Amino acid sequence: EVDWSVNPTFLICQREGAAVMLKLAKTASSPMRDHTPGLDLMDAYFWVRDIGALEEDLKARGAPIIEGPVKREYGCTELAVHDPDGRRLVFGFCP
Fold first, then answer.
1. In the structure, how many helices (H) and strands (E) does the chain have?
2. What residues have CB less than 8 Å from 85, skipping those under 6 apart?
3. CA pair distance 40, 63, nearest whole angstrom
4. Cα torsion through 74, 36, 84, 75, rounded to 10
5. Which residue of 10, 19, 36, 49 shows the fewest CB atoms closer than 10 Å?
6. 66 by DSSP, 3-state: which?
7. CA proximity to 49, closest of 59, 57, 40, 37
8. pLDDT tens for each residue of 40-84
9. What is the distance between the alpha carbons of residues 44 and 22, in angstroms, rounded to a whole number?
């Protein structure tokens, strides 16, 4: 077992059977702070199975939802949050 409380540099986030592996970068990059919701790129995009359940979970945790959920013209329902570093993370349900 690893003690991640001491100098953590790697983690795996899991939800709904999917996993995202993140590693601490040697130098910081700038988040995409200037954007037009739904039109510009995002820092990361995740497909989810239940956007409503995710929205409820994020709200319960106090996550800063900055947009959505909103159904896009391409058929996906998306919501966007800012992570603690200000990066724009978008979650989409795309049937």
1. 1, 6
2. 31
3. 21
4. -10
5. 36
6. strand
7. 57
8. 567 788 888 999 999 999 999 998 899 989 999 989 999 999 888
9. 12
